[in-house]
Each structure stands twice: as C-alpha cells, then as structure tokens.
Amino acid sequence: MDQRQASPRQDLNDGIAPPRAITNQAAARLLDRIAQLLEAKGENPYRVRAYREAAAQIEAMQTNLRELWQEGKLETIPRVGPSIAAKLAEFLKTGRSSYLEELQRSVPQGIERLLEVPGIGPARARFLSEHLGIHTPEDLIEAAEAHRIRALPGFGERSEQRLLIEARRWAQRERRLLLGTAWPIAQEIINLLKADPAIEQVSMGGSLRRMRETVGDVDLLAAAAVPEVASLRFSQIPIVREVLASGPTKVSVLLESGLQVDLRVVEPASWGAALQHFTGSKQHNIHLRDLAIGRGLKLNEYGIYDIATGRRIGGEVEEDVYHALELDWIPPELREDRGEIQAAAEHTLPVLVELSDLHGDLHVHTAWSDGSVSIEAMAVAAREFGLDYIAVTDHSQSLAIAHGLNLVRYREQRHEIDALNQRLAPFRIFAGAEVDILTDGSLDLPADVANELDYVAVSIHSRFQMDREQMTQRIIRGISHPFVNTLSHPTGRIIDRRPGYDIDLEAILRVAARNGVAVEINSAIDRLDLDDIWVRRAKELGCRLVVNSDSHGPDQFTNLRFGVAVARRGWLTSADLVNTLPLEGFSSWLRQRKRQRTA
Ligand SMILES: [Zn+2]
Ligand SMILES: [Zn+2]
C-alpha cells in the first residue's frame, strides 16, 4: 500500500473522463508502454518493434494526431497499420486502452515501476522475474542486498551493486507526503463519506492509519452493502478534480490540490479483515500470517478461515483477527513488527498516550519574537484547543533573524504574562524561553535571567555543520546548565530537506536522563523530532519526554496530534510525558527542578 503507483500525470491510461486533448506525445507514450510490456512478456520481437517504430513516428510527427483521427486518416501514418490504428482510435476517443489494461493484468504487478529503474530493460525485468521472482523495485533492492543477483548469468557483483544504487535512488525519488499534509485531507474526506447512509464504515488505511511521519499514498477503506454506491459517492465529493480510475471496489481520484486518494470498498462482513490487511505494515502482516499458519488458520482481506474445514471464523471487526491468534488488539501505530506481536501475546502492550491526555504545551512563540500573534491570542487559542497551560518560549537574542529577546525584553514580557494570568485564570501561562545553545555549549542567556524564568528550553539554530564530537559536546554542555528544563528538537532534522546534526544521540539522551532534562517531540509537521525509533530508545534510557507544538500561530496547536502520533509509535504512555501532568503536577515538576538546581 505504501508503494506509489506511477504519478497521475504519467498514468494516462487511467483517465475515464473524455480526454480533453490527447497529445501526440501521450499517444506515443502509450505505444511505448505497450512495447515495453510485450517485451517484458517475451512476445514476438517483430511486434515489439512495430509498436516502438510507430511510437517514434508519432512522436516526431508535425501533424496533430487527433485531426488525422477525426478525418479517418490514422492509417496514412507510416508504420501505423490497422491494428495499431484501432488502439490509437480507442485511446483518442476514451483516453484509455483496453489492450494496455489487458497487458497490465497479464504481467506481475509492479513490473512497470521496475522498468523505471535505470539499468532495467524489459528483457532484464523478465529474466529477474522468472529467476528470482523480482517484480518491483522493492524486490530488486531486497535481492541485491541479499547478494542473490550476482550469481545470475550475465550479472555479476559489479552490475548487482550498480542496480542496487539505481534502485535505491529510484525509491528515494518517489515523492512522499508529510503526515501533517495528508492526514487533515483524508479526515475531511472521511467526514464527507461518513455522512452518507449508504456507507457503513470508513477509515484511513496503510501508513496513514499507522501515522508514519510520511506517507506514499492516501489510502481509504470503506464498507458498504452496495460497494458501487460508495465508489460513486467518493468520486462525486466536491474536492475531487478528476477520477483517475474507477471500478466497483476501487476508485482513484485526483483532488483539486493535486493529491491522489485511493478508496477501496469492501462488504461489511469483511470490514475487519480488510481493515487489518490494508493497514499493514507488510512485516507485521507477514508475522501474523505465520502465527495463523501455525494454528491451522488462514488470514486474508476477506476473513479468517480454518484451513482444515475451510470454515470462515471471523473478519467482521478487526479484533477478530487478533483474537483468533490469541493476541490483544494492537493499535495501528505499533504495527511495524517491532515486538508488538510478542507483547500482544503476553498482554503487555502499553496503554498509549492520547491527544486528550495533554494538559499543556511548552513550546509556543508569540509576536515578541517570530510568532504571528500576541501572548493573549496564543493563550486563548490553546485554551480553546483544550489545554490548561502553556509556556511562552520566544527565541533568545542571538537569533536575530527571529527577533530574539534580550534580558530587558524578557523582563517586559514577564510583566505582560503576570497580568494575563490574573485575567485568564485558571488557565496558566508560564514565562519561558527557547534559548540558543551557542557553539561552545554556553547558553545565549545569563544564568540570573534564566533563573527568573519559570521554564527554559534549549536548542540549536546555527552552525549545523560541526563535526560529530564537537556537536555532541555542544549539546551535552547545553543541557548540563542547571536551569534547563527541556531539550527542543534534539536532532534538528527537517523531513526530506535536512538531515539531523551529526551527533551521538545516545550519549546526549543518557545525559538528559541523568540531568532530569525532558526531551522534546516537536510536532511541527516537517520536524517530528525526535522520531519514533529514538523516542522509544529515550524512554528505555530513562528520559522524560514532552510533546510540544512549537506553534508560531494560533492555528498550529492542532499539530500536537502528530507529535502524539510519534509518541504512540514510540510506545509512550501518558506517564512518560511531562505535559500530561495537570497544572498542579506540572508546577511541582518545575519547583522540583528549581530545588535540584539550588541544592
Ligand atoms: Zn527552535
Ligand atoms: Zn521554537
């Protein structure tokens, strides 16, 4: 499900709307794709060549293909005989080719994507498919990593290495969406579909339901007694620009925003089995299938079956699948085959933290630095979101670009916060700061000023390129000052744009645990820093964590949902976080820190 299909623009065969203007290039591409699939299937080379040559002819032609077709003159094109002319005519008329579709059905799924990897032509694709069952770029990567390709005749070690590099590059080239971009759109569509009485169930699926930090496709799943009705409703929702492909049980659409969304529709009796199956992950499902086989059971998207009798024993709800294997139901965020199945068998799955467990947000910017609105406006927005307290953490002065505050300004801000706390009680604003860790590990704020503040977070915003040893020491020194409460966005990564600093994060987390410094999960949708794997490690090392929004405007508290998702994927319970403490508890956590530092 995570595997992206060809981009909608390339997928010219999927349009069912009457084609507005099929260009010569699009028609040439259709013929090339047919040639490629014929060759991959090992068809007659003369037929393959006929399609290639016709494609080249049309590509180079000055005359508009559409006009020739309307005049009934397709066969006057050199290299275009009656058979190819008929395929072109269908394509020009409907935007699709039943012949291409037939070919696509006759080859293993994914082979067209495999053909996009440089170095993989149709002949090689067929060879790899026949000998090693490689049908997709993912299969190719796996086989190359396991050194299974080098032994094949005509390949060898060097060509295996080259294919691995190309396939990895191809995989990275695939566009992935940020969770925070895809999720709200999927939720909006779900709300529209839920309002329809013909649709009994609807849910996100795939990596989106597992809340991975990026997702390949937006996959939705619905259950309806009459699946065609649900498919139709989906293709008619207002934000759909174009229907890319439409069948009774699967519809792909392109939204006005350019995002592709796929809906699969199943019968209500299969809802649970299908939801489980299409949520994944692949590894999680493989592990479950193995368990099932050991018990004489079979799992698929339609249900759970007793192999001996063929009897269906469940599948209406997702719990059926897990209970049939004597497992507790596993929250989707944990389904990565990282020990969750074992824990479910031993009934030791954690009770994961939920968004509603958060009482405060300890990373909030205002117009005093680079935020967009006043302290009051942020406080009111946080209260409306359901929080009981925030820490205002405007930048310190070295971050001139963000209008960082100096000590005089922090004191002025303190006055404003005190006055607001009078008015907004019982809501509480803590006077804090996001203080830069300077290159030598000192902080951009004198200790006496820091001691006046209620709360201090530290982070890095400059000189990202220091070497591993220096950067690690810089951060360790930064979190060793006694007045520091939290380390913010600990790795500095920006998803898909900037890798994290080169650091020994393990060493840093150990110091944070020892010093009682909380470690942040930053909910900004392109940060999500720490990530799920490190969150779990931080917990093992004894760190307390905090899920913060890093809001720069009043509409960004909603991002906390994504930080909570990371926490859940990192197996955190409410007790592992600091800002799940109610106001009183949080205040005493702060007081305790103050006592430690003065002791
Ligand atoms: Zn920051
Ligand atoms: Zn910030």
Question: Can you characterise this structure?
Answer:
The protein is α/β, with parallel strands linked by helices and 599 residues long. It folds into 4 domains: 162 residues, DNA polymerase beta, N-terminal domain-like (DNA polymerase, domain 1); 90 residues, Beta Polymerase, domain 2; 69 residues, DNA polymerase, thumb domain (Beta Polymerase, domain 3, 2-Layer Sandwich), CATH 3.30.210.10; 242 residues, Alpha-Beta Barrel (TIM Barrel), CATH 3.20.20.140. 43% of the residues lie in helices and 13% in strands. The strands form 4 sheets. The protein has a 7-stranded parallel beta sheet with strand order 11-12-13-14-15-16-17. Strands 2-4-7-6-5 form a 5-stranded mixed beta sheet, with helices on both faces. The chain has a 3-stranded antiparallel beta sheet with strand order 8-9-10. α13 packs across α15 and α17 packs across α18. The two termini are 55 Å apart. The protein binds zinc ion (ZN) (2 copies). The site of one zinc ion has 4 residues, from loops.
